[in-house]
């Protein structure tokens, strides 16, 4: 039997790091697309968006049922967006259709609490 070749651990590690970098880049792009599709990027400034997300995380930890209802609402949003009902290409139309990210940050916080 021929001896096994030694593994190039450094090359494997570099390949995994490259793959992780690509996944993070794709995730950032998808999050940006989500902000645009819901209209949240136009309706709220970055500070309000960050506050809304932080509030949502706190609410999800305190009330898992709320997080489940948000998940269902998001699933319905993507189902509608994927079925071609969003014809305008405008993030505002998607936001109105999904009921997401109202222009008033206080309303957005109330939505997050639901």
Please give a structural write-up.
The longest helix has 30 residues, at 9-38. The protein has one domain. It has six helices and no strands. The chain starts with 8 loop residues before the first helix and ends with a helix. By secondary structure, it is mostly helical. It is elongated and about 65 Å long. This is Conjugal transfer protein TraC.
In short:
This protein is mainly alpha-helical and 114 residues long. 76% of the residues lie in helices and 0% in strands.
Oligomer: single chain
Mean pLDDT: 80
Order of helices and strands: HHHHHH
Secondary-structure-derived class:
mainly alpha
User: Any idea what the shape is?
Assistant: elongated
The major sheet is characterized as: none
Strand content: under 5%
Task: Detail the poorly predicted runs.
Answer: 85-110
Number of domains: 1
Count of DSSP E strands? 0
Number of helical stretches of at least 4 residues? 6
Q: Radius of gyration from the CA trace?
A: 20 Å
The CA-CA distance between the termini, in Å, is 66 Å
Helix content: over 70%
Region (Disordered): 65-114
Protein name: Conjugal transfer protein TraC
Organism: Teichococcus wenyumeiae
Biased composition (Basic and acidic residues): 68-78
Give me the secondary-structure topology:
Elements (H helix, E strand, L loop, with lengths): L8 H30 L1 H4 L2 H17 L1 H19 L8 H8 L6 H9 L1
Helix pairs in contact: 1-5, 3-4, 3-6
